[in-house]
Design goal:
It is a single chain. The protein is α/β, with parallel strands linked by helices. 30% of the residues lie in helices and 25% in strands. The chain folds into 3 domains: 5-72, no CATH class; 91-273, Vaccinia Virus protein VP39 (Rossmann fold); 288-406. The protein has helices at 13-19, 22-36, 41-50, 55-71, 85-90, 94-102, 119-126, 138-151, 196-202, 294-298, 302-308, 345-355, 371-377; strands at residues 109-113, 130-135, 155-159, 172-175, 180-181, 184-185, 208-213, 229-235, 238-247, 256-261, 267-273, 288-292, 312-313, 321-323, 332-342, 360-365, 388-395, 398-406. A 9-stranded mixed β-sheet has the order 3-2-1-4-7-9-8-10-11, with helices on both faces. It has a 7-stranded mixed β-sheet with strand order 13-14-12-15-18-17-16. It is globular. The site of S-adenosylmethionine has 21 residues, from helix 7.
Length: 408
């Protein structure tokens, strides 16, 4: 998400109410049309002032116009919705919201704590449950209520501190605590806003609970409950979010899950473990190098997946695996090994000159090397993602350069 400091603007509740009224919506549509036509922001702001729109309302219109334009890349109905930039930047990734909502689909009611402008609340309501959205930011809830009406979804908003909101016994709770303070990303569960242990205590009467978290959360976080499932969500090559599941919303006895999503939030592949990670032995480099996807590594299911594929680790401390036959798997990028060379740029450059391999890319695995500097030392050969991959790998007994091309 963008991190422009201008996105810290937060409208007053009065301005948010005005924005979703007849005049505000018209001003917003006009501002979006002007920005779309290439008019710059200062001119749009000057026009609003010239038309007698008061400064707080004008700032709110301009911010919402920018938010709407930003949201188009991820929300098909962005042009009907009213957002703020800060709320949009804090909103869950729509694919992650949709995937999480699928776990509560069919429930009659869900309470969404820290709902913000409603990225998750609207996704949950779209699967059927009546949603009670709780947040202390009344302006965001005003926009959420408007957006729910536009989309025809059943969402009730409540302005409250979520730590004091009474959770009905046996109900289902979703929560999305804030992950940024003073421009800093918060990673540990105990420092989120509000802290996850406090949220869990508040949600204790619930039968099931799902918490949206950053993908940077670690399975060793001291505040991770022992009876929870931590799910890592990956979209394309990117880890987008993680989710903590408890009670009825946890899948069986899973403790860690890796999930590969489609752009629309559908689950393409999912694998979990309910015990400790598999202890896969280290073995000699084979004909193929298997590079696990981030979600599998973070959930520590890659070794178990490798075991099923007959693979072995390249080194005790590396997630990289190796195999003698090319496996068909969505969980690894598979590279056919063309050469294993000493970790010397001059040797690798000489090999590249004789091999005629096309564009190259350099990846490091446990070695403290700057790939750009190494590329310069290789004589600046053409670069590109679909050609040859030069893996600079720390093994247990030294480092090597494994040159390979994508298998299949
Ligand atoms: C990450 S945002 C939620 C984003 C939302 N799930 C979405 O997808 O649009 C976190 C929200 O938590 C709210 N919040 C933080 N602490 C709170 C508290 N103690 N009580 C109520 N709301 C709180 C903030 O106002 C903010 O809107």
């Amino acid at each position: 998400m963008p991190s422009d400091p201008a996105a810290s603007f937060a409208p007053t509740t009065e301005a948010a109410r005005w924005l979703v009224g007849t005049e505000g919506l018209q001003r917003l549509a006009d501002a979006v049309a002007a920005l779309d036509a290439g008019v710059d922001e200062l001119t749009v702001a000057a026009r609003l002032r010239r038309d007698g729109v008061e400064p707080e309302h004008a700032r709110t219109v301009l911010d919402a116009a920018q938010a709407r334009i930003l949201a188009r890349s991820r929300l098909p109905r962005a042009d009907e919705l009213v957002l703020t930039r800060a709320a949009w930047e804090q909103a869950s990734h729509p694919a992650a919201s949709t995937a999480r909502a699928a776990r509560v689909a069919g429930a009659s009611a869900v309470t969404d704590l820290c709902s913000g402008v409603g990225g998750d609340a609207l996704a949950i309501a779209a699967t059927g449950p009546a949603v009670t959205a709780v947040d202390r930011d009344e302006a965001r809830l005003t926009l959420l209520a408007h957006n729910a009406t536009v989309l025809g979804l059943a969402v009730t908003t409540v302005v409250a501190d979520v730590l004091r909101y009474p959770i009905a016994p046996g109900s289902l709770v979703h929560a999305d605590p804030g992950r940024r303070a003073a421009g800093r990303r918060l990673r540990r569960l105990g420092e989120l806003l509000p802290p996850v242990p406090s949220l869990l205590a508040a949600a204790a009467p619930a039968a099931g609970c799902g918490i949206a978290l950053s993908p940077a959360v670690d399975l060793t976080d001291p505040d991770l409950p022992a009876d929870g499932e931590l799910e890592f969500l990956q979209l394309g090559p990117q880890l987008v979010e993680s989710s903590l599941w408890l009670g009825d919303l946890r899948r069986g006895g899973a403790v860690a899950t890796a999930t590969l999503l489609d752009e629309d939030g559908a689950v393409r592949h999912r694998v979990d473990r309910d015990g400790p990670p598999v202890d896969l032995p280290v073995g000699a480099l084979g004909a193929f190098l298997l590079e696990p996807h981030a979600a599998a590594v973070r959930a520590r299911v890659h070794a178990g997946l490798g075991e099923e594929l007959g693979a072995r680790r390249v080194a005790r401390t590396r997630a990289l695996l190796t195999a003698d036959v090319a496996p068909a798997t969505p969980w690894f990028d598979v590279w056919q090994v063309d050469a294993v060379l000493p970790l010397r740029a001059r040797t690798v450059a000489a090999w590249l000159r004789t091999a005629d391999v096309g564009p190259i890319e350099i990846a490091t695995h446990g070695v403290d090397i700057d790939p750009a500097a190494w590329w310069r030392r290789l004589g600046r050969p053409p670069r590109g993602p679909e050609g040859t991959r030069i893996h600079l790998v720390r093994l247990d007994d030294g480092a090597v350069c494994v040159v390979g091309h994508r298998a299949g």
